[in-house]
Amino acid sequence: MTPAPPGRVRRGLVETRAGAVEYCELGSGPALLALHPTPGSCLWYADVAPLLAGERRLLAMTTMGYGRSERPHPPYTTVGEYAAAAVAFLDAMGVERAGVVGSHTGSVLAVEVAAGWPERVEALVLGEPFNWNTPARREVLTRQHRYVPPAPDGSHLVELWRRQGPGRPGVDLREFARRFVDFLVVNAPEAAYGELGWEGAGPHAITRYEMWDRAAAIEAPTLVIHGSGSDLGRSHERFLATIARSRGLRPPSHGRFSPREAPVLWADEVTGFLRDPGV
Questions:
Q1: Mean pLDDT, 10 residues at a time, over the chain (279 residues)?
Q2: Contact predicate 198/190, CB 8 Å
Q3: How much of the chain is helix, strand and coil, in % rounded to 5?
Q4: What is the Cα–Cα distance from 196 to 194, expressed in whole angstroms?
Q5: φ/ψ (deg, to 5) at 231
Q6: What's the pTM?
Q7: Which residues pair with 272 in a beta bridge?
Q8: Is 214 helix (H, G, I), strand (E, B) or coil?
Q9: Which position among 19, 32, 94, 100 has the lowest Cβ density within 10 Å, counted as fewest Cβ atoms?
Q10: Quick one: CA dihedral 74, 80, 86, 89, positive or negative?
């Protein structure tokens, strides 16, 4: 496969044994697999990719069923299926071993890649990981991710726009508008996920995932990131106690930390950790 041109994010589709996978690529050197939140696509990492590309070949993949990645049939219902597709993507890209970075939903998927395929993971970076596997937390995600039927007057578009949180402090509305198409793509019905629709495919899986059992199986050195203002940060110390070779980072944040909130800080911490995990 032809490497990405220097300085430009390459986008494409690659055929894997799991189906066609959308991806973004930039840089050269050891591979870094990047896994995005729900809903979204590989474009979630496009703005921060250049900050990592000096030392790494960043490979951001779109989770199966999202963006332009193929929708699995039958639909996936487990984190293990999504993780297997991520490994199939690495195979298709000719990568034997990689660093793995995941944010939010992507961090749960990253846990399973590391736990299930330890020989493929050099180091792990988990952004805002959490155990979602309780009835109350399942209900929270059900409210956040659900199918909105189209309305003749287009009012469903306004509902989808508002639900994705463009009013949060510091949101770049131009960048948010660019990614809004990802939310529209997955606003489709799917019986496997009930009222969640396709958008809820990832949430359906992570709310049935045995996080603490699988996190304990991680062998790779791991950096755990929760923002200082994150409501998910209450599990920070438990992740550090559960993952044998881990250390933590609590960057300043208004809420749950996103790399876009402090891109240079995030990139410096990630590249420094990958260069020398120190755990």
A1: 62 97 95 95 90 92 97 96 98 98 98 98 98 95 88 91 71 77 91 91 96 98 98 98 98 92 94 93
A2: yes
A3: 40, 15, 40
A4: 5
A5: -70, -20
A6: 0.93
A7: none
A8: helix
A9: 94
A10: negative
